[in-house]
Write a structure and sequence with these properties.
Order of helices and strands: EEEHEHEHEHEEHHHEHHH
CATH superfamily: Spore Coat Polysaccharide Biosynthesis Protein SpsA, Chain A
Shape: globular
Helix content: 40-55%
Number of helices: 10
Number of strands: 9
Strand order of the largest sheet: 5-4-1-6-8-7-9
CATH topology: Spore Coat Polysaccharide Biosynthesis Protein SpsA, Chain A
Distance between the termini: 49 Å
CATH class: Alpha Beta
CATH architecture: Alpha-Beta Complex
Strand content: 15-25%
Largest sheet: 7 strands, mixed
Number of domains: 1
């Protein structure tokens, strides 16, 4: 019997660079809707949960999740690791997939490949496509065993580790077994995540150029090919990357 795999989507409204980004719209759907639907489309994912904070501003995320019929776990905005541990326990997950809600071009097949990398290796604790970046930024997925998540939640003390969930695990390769998933071709120069107004302008242009339905997304390779063949989109990609390099105020 296959282990129970639960994808937990980390979402918040309080972005410094782009407040409310999670509920911005792309092609008639919210960014969160795109991410949730894509996570649900992954063959190896049994359930999707959204993790958000107890801050009043994140009540809007809870309302959107009700519309999407998606379960929500709420906790401290500064201790997201604790929220993930709660979601793991309450959902009965044996494997947790960490996804962030600022990745509207998330590819379900990439999520599956990360989960399969974890399951294929004996006693693997953590698999991702980010230990060495070869995929476009915005296709990030991390698969973590429930036991490793529980250890991290119990032992991590650094505030950075509590807020960002998985550093306690992947920064300790001597203790945890790690695997990295590589793309067939290096796409690390492409930026498909949503963090700044420049990102939003770029993603709006991508969604306008490519027919990307919320429930049946095309493979990321298809989108990448179209982006690379369009000089205007590549210019927006470069502008978005440059904007992100400027420290947030």
């Amino acid at each position: 019997m296959s282990p129970r795999v639960v994808a937990v989507v980390q979402a918040r409204m309080g972005s410094t660079r782009l407040p409310g980004k999670t509920l911005l719209r792309l092609a008639g759907a919210t960014v969160l809707e795109h991410v949730v639907n894509r996570a649900r489309s992954a063959r190896r994912v049994d359930r999707v949960v959204v993790a958000t904070s107890t801050n009043a501003e994140d009540d809007a995320i809870v309302q959107e999740c009700a519309r999407l019929r998606t379960h929500v776990e709420r906790g401290s905005a500064l201790d997201v690791l604790d929220c993930y541990a709660m979601a793991t326990e309450r959902s009965g997950a044996e494997v947790v997939v960490r996804i962030t809600a600022d990745c509207p071009l998330l590819d379900p097949a990439v999520v599956d490949s990360v989960v399969e990398a974890l399951l294929a290796a004996p006693r693997c604790d953590y698999a991702s496509n980010t230990l060495e970046r070869t995929f476009p930024q915005g296709l990030d997925a991390e698969a973590v065993s429930a036991s490793a998540m529980a250890i991290a939640a119990c032992e991590a003390r650094d505030p950075y580790e509590r807020e960002h969930v998985t550093p306690y695990i992947y920064n300790r390769p001597d203790r945890f077994s790690l695997r990295n998933v590589r793309a067939a071709a290096d796409g690390s120069d492409l930026r498909w995540t949503l963090d700044t107004p420049a990102d939003y302008e770029y993603l709006q242009a991508v969604f306008a150029r490519v027919d990307i339905p919320a429930k049946t997304p095309p493979p990321f390779e298809f989108v990448a090919r179209i982006v690379r063949e369009d000089a205007g989109l590549m210019a927006l990609n470069a502008r978005a990357a440059q904007a992100t390099a400027v420290p947030a105020r």
